[in-house]
Write a sequence for this structure.
């Protein structure tokens, strides 16, 4: 039976220190190899907090599953800002293409069956953070997506 270690690490910058090292060390696995593999798998998520699950099968055999960052973290990365607004002050504007990109990354973790509906979920999160979409409020952007204004962006995406 495999031992499982779950941790939140900084994408591309995991280290043998806490939380990974102390959890993996007693399992006898080569911590440096695990950390190197995690950094390889998360290099595109540089600096973002990423959930990882390490399944240690034996001293030499392990498997790593990388989760997706929270939707809010992906939105902040697209905007290149540190944090959202708690009081609905507009902190930035995303293009619909950026919203669709976030929805594509989060797709498996969302309840939506289509990319269009996943995009609408992301728009809702963006609105609660003080982010506009193509200059529209989240409600206006939701209506625009529902009315078909952006259907050309969704063509060819499952």
């Amino acid at each position: 039976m495999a031992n499982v270690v779950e941790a939140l690490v900084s994408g591309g910058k995991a280290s043998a220190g806490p939380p990974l090292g102390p959890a993996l060390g007693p399992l006898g696995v080569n911590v440096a190899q695990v950390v190197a593999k995690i950094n390889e798998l998360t290099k595109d998520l540089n600096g973002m907090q990423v959930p990882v699950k390490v399944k240690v099968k034996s001293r030499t055999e392990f498997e790593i599953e990388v989760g997706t960052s929270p939707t809010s973290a992906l939105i902040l990365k697209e905007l290149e800002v540190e944090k959202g607004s708690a009081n609905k002050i507009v902190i930035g504007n995303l293009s619909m293409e950026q919203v669709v990109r976030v929805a594509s990354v989060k797709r498996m973790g969302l309840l939506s069956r289509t990319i269009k509906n996943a995009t609408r979920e992301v728009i809702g999160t963006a609105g609660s953070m003080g982010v506009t979409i193509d200059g529209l409020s989240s409600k206006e952007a939701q209506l625009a997506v529902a009315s078909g204004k952006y259907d050309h962006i969704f063509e060819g995406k499952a």
User: Anything to note?
Assistant: The radius of gyration is 19 Å. Residues 115-128 form the longest helix (14 residues). Strands lie at 3-10, 49-56, 62-66, 92-94, 131-133.
